[in-house]
């Protein structure tokens, strides 16, 4: 475990402390994926890299969007746009729990005063065709992270198994900083010449997106986009492995997966608009899962996914 | 006699799996040991969040040697046969024994199996146990192939005797067994070497681990109740929660916290559910007011500030949770008390699909409403009140509180109905109409609740029957068996006589509206009107056709003529099947129920059960049992004669043709029984009717002993057959006794 640091005073200090901590543990510190996703797991650095035999260790912040959770910035801890901190290490090291606890210490949680618990919570993503076993981690009764050993992704058994950590950054930071309403949380140093709160940065966007998500988004256009993304994904994957122009083996798993991400986010928007019935829901989730599985099938045929000339 | 100590140390095992896992460890290891010849004096297994532990005391230090005798070929058998036998036995020719037997000289092999040291057997048995452990869900981790509930970190496996302990050498998937374990994750994380079970438990306790879950449970309950008592309060008992919490800690420390004043006015069930489901807190109640005022949480450690930080954190989390709950409660109350009231929620349910073939929740509610109105007079409820109760019974499904806590459905509905100024009966129906949920759950008893609860279940059954989604085998995704049992129990336990057949027909028609485009609203209305008027679907349908120029207006409607009676009948026999299960649990045989189902009016389940109970009681008596024999004899003779003669003997037995005293006595007995049975049947007093019937046993037996029915005298014979027919008529008035076994 690393030395306890001074108590952080802002949201960004907590993010920086996590970045530094996981960099020290040997993770590649990646940047957020440049698409709208519902959770850090959707980043290809997690979904795709959990597949195949190549070792992997990455950590990153991922802005995440859950349109149905929008509350116009009024709820103390519900947001339609929030940040997750995500760590994925493959194979899962045997001291992953200790490494994780070290990260809590790194953001100023004193292990001698708090009650940290690993409470059963199995993870399943029907849209990604993925599941794993693990816990939600409690600090004094509050869920601060999700800890999962991936068993299957995109319908493929994970071997070796990846260990995944997900921190809900706002909630965790509010706890560490002792803030009751997310919008009141200091974003940067409260003593900076221009101190900014989380509300200064995000209150207006929460309002704007809540209105758009719930009442304005054009559902007909979205429904078309869903079908377009679905078709594009399938069309990308139907191309031959060999690129006719370069003659190289180029399977386009990532571009196809982008379309899968897009379809998933459009589904979330349609859901927030309330135009998807309970029975249709399952069908839409199934369609996204079909895409995710096809992308996983394609990825394991690539070098990053463990394919090699010799084995083939 | 060494003792064996095993500990499987892993990352946190889900609380709900621990007890079963400890039992399985004990069973699998001790069975394996005994099978291999290692007997022992006693064994016990324990669990904590991070370990499964087994101690086996007084075990043999080696399995006993055994000698097995194997019979071989004859001494003069071909050399090849003898060689084969030797190979199988692993012996040479000179080691065989030759014995004289009646079949000649035969070779015998005495195969000695030497005993094996305990350590070898333990290593083998434990590895098999670990590799085949029956976890409800297991996983792999890292690069390994072993499956365990969560990553397995170490195996402690020692044999200890007076002269010290020895590690059982073994390796599973790269994990070597040893003599060390670890203490509490935070309070004593270092390695601990142990030499026996006593040493192990003592050292663990010093390392802040209470091994025995029962000890942890007792400690938690003791401290929690003491702490509450000291404040004049009491802890709300919850054995399930106690077991779960004891499975989340190795070193329980009980802390009692406050609930913010803002939240004390929330319904107690909301406080309790929120605290239990989200936080695993116990509720602490003020016995004077019944209100929940505090909570108890169980930490997994001591701290320098005596848990102050931990408690403050927990109070804060709870406060955030309860703010949500309060927000939902206040929003919901605002709607319930507004001018539009709970109707807003009902309207919103028109956007919620119940089933893609059966329409929305709102459509389901309007079907329920209609049926509840029809049922009301049959169950003693006011029809308007029952219809209103049905309309609002599921309104809370749109409320924010139920969205957050689905387990509070119904209960919240009753709070909101009260707040909206509805009658107590309407509020109660919102809460009660889902009941009974299980076989031991109470059934509703208030008339309005009964009407809505029955309407809910009958609509569900007829709906799924209408679209052919009946339960098959073990598949019952819509819990239709439970709904059927609910209908049965509500009717029978409330002693209600409800003719289900025409209610089924009406509700099938309402449900068919969703799947038959050719069946329009006005058709449904007309048809329901006729069903209500005629009571029987067939005549109602004819009347309906008549009104429509003597032909079905559409093909869909034409199909109803056969579909509705077929489905209605099928549903009734499904209910009869469930009734058999229900009565079997009450000790009534299925043939008794079949005998009663064969009677008219079998869609009145309460009537049916009364018949069955009366028949069951009678059959338990000597007279009753023998009456069946006498009845069957009479019935057989009569049926054979009727078949042979091609006539039905049903009338005209006259005492003047009686030739014997026994015959005359039977006439008298039948007259006397009939005089009792007829009024009893009119009053549906089947017990009295059956007991009068049982009194016929002696005269019937005496008649058959003395009288030959098939007399040469045709008149006498005919008269006797007509007499038997009277026995048949009387004996089948309560139930069809031909269906009784034996």
Fold and architecture overview:
- The complex is a heterodimer of chains A (312) and B (742).
- Chain A is of the alpha+beta class.
- Chain A contains 8 helices and 9 strands.
- Helix content of chain A is 38%, strand content 19%.
- Chain A is globular.
- In chain B, strands 1, 2, 3, 7, 8, 9 and 10 form a 7-stranded mixed β-sheet that branches.
- In chain B, strand 7 and strand 8 form a beta hairpin.
- The longest helix of chain B has 30 residues, at 555-584.
- Chain B is flat.
- The mean pLDDT of chain B is 92.
- At the A-B interface, strand 4, strand 6 and strand 7 of A face helix 8 of B.
Report the oligomer. Answer: heterodimer
Number of helices of chain B: 27
**Which two protein chains have the largest interface (Cβ within 8 Å of the partner's Cβ), and how many residues from each?**
A-B, 40 and 44 residues
**Rg calc of chain A:** 20 Å
- Count the beta strands of chain B: 18
Determine the structural class of chain A based on helices, strands and strand pairing: alpha+beta
Described by strand count, sense and barrel closure, the largest sheet of chain B is:
7 strands, mixed
Principal-axes geometry of chain A comes out as globular
Strand content of chain A: 15-25%
Secondary structure topology:
The complex is a heterodimer of chains A (312) and B (742).
Chain A: H1 11-24, E1 28-29, H2 44-47, E2 56-65, E3 81-90, H3 96-106, E4 116-120, E5 123-125, E6 130-139, E7 142-153, E8 156-157, E9 163-168, H4 169-177, H5 198-216, H6 219-237, H7 253-272, H8 278-299
Chain B: E1 3-10, H1 15-35, E2 42-48, E3 51-57, E4 66-74, H2 79-89, E5 97-101, E6 104-113, H3 118-131, E7 152-161, E8 164-167, E9 171-172, E10 175-178, E11 180-182, E12 191-193, H4 197-206, H5 213-230, E13 234-235, H6 239-246, E14 253-258, H7 268-279, E15 282-285, E16 292-299, H8 308-336, H9 343-348, E17 353-355, E18 359-360, H10 361-379, H11 383-393, H12 400-404, H13 411-419, H14 424-432, H15 447-466, H16 480-493, H17 500-515, H18 521-534, H19 537-547, H20 555-584, H21 590-597, H22 605-619, H23 622-645, H24 661-682, H25 686-694, H26 697-706, H27 714-731
Parallel strand pairs in B: 7-10
Antiparallel strand pairs in B: 1-3, 1-7, 2-3, 4-6, 5-6, 7-8, 9-10, 11-12, 13-15, 14-16, 15-16, 17-18
Helix pairs in contact in B: 1-3, 5-6, 7-8, 10-11, 10-15, 10-17, 11-14, 11-15, 13-14, 14-15, 15-16, 15-17, 15-20, 16-20, 17-18, 17-20, 18-19, 21-22, 22-25, 23-25, 23-26, 23-27, 24-25, 24-26, 24-27
